[in-house]
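PROTEIN DESIGN WORKSHEET
SECTION A - STRUCTURE
LENGTH: 67
TOKENS:
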């Protein structure tokens, strides 16, 4: 994953701390990111239809961390 987030060229050193912040965030919140999959197994079939995946909160927090 670190290689996927590596910026091209000489900007690597300048963005290292930002990349580390993002990786730290994803690592700390990995359980919450996959919570919907675990919840699906615990609710009734009718309720499963209401559980829609979304990344809105994660995307906003990523913007805050990176930006």
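SECTION B - SEQUENCE
RESIDUE ASSIGNMENT:
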């Amino acid at each position: 994953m670190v290689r996927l987030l590596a910026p091209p060229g000489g900007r690597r050193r300048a963005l290292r701390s930002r990349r580390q912040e993002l990786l730290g965030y994803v690592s700390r919140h990995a359980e919450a990111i996959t919570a919907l999959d675990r919840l699906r197994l615990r609710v009734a079939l009718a309720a499963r239809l209401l559980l829609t995946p979304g990344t809105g909160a994660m995307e906003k927090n990523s913007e805050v961390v990176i930006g």
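SECTION C - NOTES
Residues 3-51 form one domain.
The mean pLDDT is 75.
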